[in-house]
Specification:
Elements: E1 15-17, E2 20-24, H1 25-41, E3 46-51, H2 52-60, E4 65-66, E5 69-73, H3 78-91, E6 98-99, E7 112-118, E8 121-126, H4 128-138, H5 144-154, H6 159-169, H7 177-188
Amino acid sequence: MGGKRPTTCCTLTTTLERGGMYVNVEEMRHALEMLGHRLSQEGLRGDIVIAGGAWMALVLGSRGVTKDIDAYLSPPTEPIRRAASAVAKELGLPADWLNDGIKGFFYGTPPQELWQEFEGLRVHAVTADYMLALKVYAARLEDQADVQALLQHLGIHTASAVLDIVERYIPHHMLTAKHEYFAEICVEGLPSM
C-alpha cells in the first residue's frame, strides 16, 4: 500500500486515425502502470489477461497502436473497473480504454503467461496460439495483418495447421467455411520463404 506513485513517462497524446482514438504502446504501458498504482493505493492487487490489438502491440510488437486494451478482468472486477475509470479521467482516455468485452470470446480459461507485473497489477497475456485462434475465429478482414504476424511468429505456413490450432480452443461445431477461407487467405498472403 502507499507505494511510490509512478512517474509520468509521457503526456498521453492519443492519435486520431480513421475517425477513432488510438493509444500507442508507451501510453498503454503507462495506463496499466497507473491502474496498478490506483489498486495498490486501495491495498489491492488486480489480475487481468490481455488479448486483441493490445496483445499484438505489447506482447508481439507487431503494431504500434490500438483502440483499447481488450482484457479479461479477474474477480473481483469492481475495484479494477473503478481504478480504470479514475485512470481514464486522469489520462484523458476513453471510459472504455480497458475493455472486458473479450470475455465473451474466451472458451474456458485461456492458456496464459505472466507478461508484466506492476505495483498492484499483474498483467497476463494469452498465448500466441490462443491469440491466433481468437483472430481466426473472428475472421475479420481487418485482422488479416495480425493473423499473418502470428503465423510468422509461430512458424505456420498452411491453412490446415492454422485450423488445427483453432480447433484446440474453439469447438469444431462453431467453425464454418468462413473460418477455413479466412485461414486460407491469411496463409496465401504470407511473404514467400
